[in-house]
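>> received
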Amino acid sequence: MAEALRILLVDDHPVVRRGLRAMFDDRPDMTVVAEAADGQAALDVLAGTEVDIVLMDLQMPTGMDGVTATRRITADGGPPVLVLTTYDSDADILTAVEAGATGYMLKDAPPEELCQAVWLAASGQTALAPGVAARLLGHLRRPQPALSPREVEILQLLAQGLSNRALSKALFISEATVKTHLVHIYDKLGVDNRTAAITTALQRGIIRPR
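>> returned
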């Protein structure tokens, strides 16, 4: 029999990691070789452990987030990263894909579907949850100009109530640059103020509710 697929679980919730470990370790073709509670811990594990596939959560508030960790892992030529999260907004999906994630699955996926995605991602193939694939296709087919990652980031911060000054400090850019970004965002969304921009972005799934 072929050697079992070596999995690294990265999630800040111990209960989630425990459930995933039990599911994978119950299979003869998969084994969890390590766990990590945040992105930095995952990088530390990879420095000394042979891993075939990383299952990466996105939101880990107490440490390095999943997107940053994914970007670091892929930049260093590490194993494929399969994002496993509860979020399916355009912002999350596009950011993860741009960071180098090989696949994107949701935590409520059926076990067999998730295991198949793990094998696909480990072999370098793209593995997307059906809803995620539909969102990506919809994003590509939309006639309106696509928002850049920076514009999506600004929209997400706008939804948190940040002022132009707060935005400039958070992103280390000038207020004039923030205003320029806002003009482009309004134009692309077909709106003329920040409230309408936030509402439209939420309705289209570009950003997620806070």
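>> Residues 149-204 form a domain with the Arc Repressor Mutant, subunit A fold (CATH 1.10.10.10).
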